[in-house]
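Hey L., structure's done. Input below.
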Amino acid sequence: MALQAGIVGLPNVGKSTLFNALTAAGAAAANFPFCTIDPNVGVVPVPDGRMEQLHAIIKTNVIIPAAVEVVDIAGLVRGASTGAGLGNKFLGHIRSVDAVLHVVRCFDDGDVVHVDGHPDPLRDIDTIDTELALADLESITRRVDRFRKQSKGGDKESLFQLGVAERLEKLVNEGKPARHGTWTADEWVSVKDAQLITAKPVLYVCNVDEAGLSGDNAYVKSVRARAATEGAQVVVLCAKIEAEIQELPAEDRPAFLADMGLPEPGLAKLARGVYALLGLQTYFTAGVKEIRAWTIPVGAKAPQAAGVIHTDFEKGFIRAEVYTVPDLVAAGSEAALKAAGKMRVEGKEYVVQDGDVMHFRFNV
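Output:
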């Protein structure tokens, strides 16, 4: 199943512009199996320049980057949890996502009306957080009732689940997200089982105007300060410019970015932000059939990495031949790489590093 991130935010903060830029990036990616699952879900590539470096040496017609499913959670306004806007319908979409991208308006523009009169990032964050917490509270209350009934006979598992649910209820009633509770490993499994929106890790996406790309404005600084207290991540981009980039032919984009003083599109920063938030990294397989990026948790060992391709690879793992993209670029070919002794043979205990290129040997 693809990694999923849900975009939330108040109306007129730039959420739809960003979502359209993301899905346009997916549609334009060469050999990328872009699709729109339904009108508010798109599958987009994770930009990674290392794949181009691989392709410069290992020629193939198929390049498949890592993918993120982006879910546009429409209709979130004050009162969404009680059915205002399209709240209830779309809140259901976000319960299964891995991370929440919270788009916050960090620019002034008299031509773009703000639902509350003027931009105030912290107030806007609180509004969304309140709606998500209220939606969670309804779910938590049902969970408390269920385990209260099941635990009447003294069943230890039901009593444990009830204890976690009651603590969740207290926490969310205090206006705190479920992710801010102090949980043991077993308790966290119970929290995750509840599929609460406020248990999801959050990446704040500060949407700025063009001037805001040259340095943090006061709005962005306030969001960074808030995120620091929560252990959340922050990415700053201009959704309008990201949309403009996607409208350009690929060959014109580097010059546009240079004119804007940008080293890369903001979407690349966003993708890396999601990966960092979820503790993920990428390794590659590369051959004449295809060059492909695979997503694994940081700290995964070689057999686990092989299992992402197919469970048989993990079960029958023998060894992995491993090299790095910089070493391949320096050698000029895989043959020269091997001759230089830069292709390593690693066993079951090898901890895969971000950017490793791997060939697996296995028995079935």
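Confidence is low (pLDDT under 50) at residues 29-37. The CA atoms of residues 25 and 246 lie 6 Å apart.

-- N.
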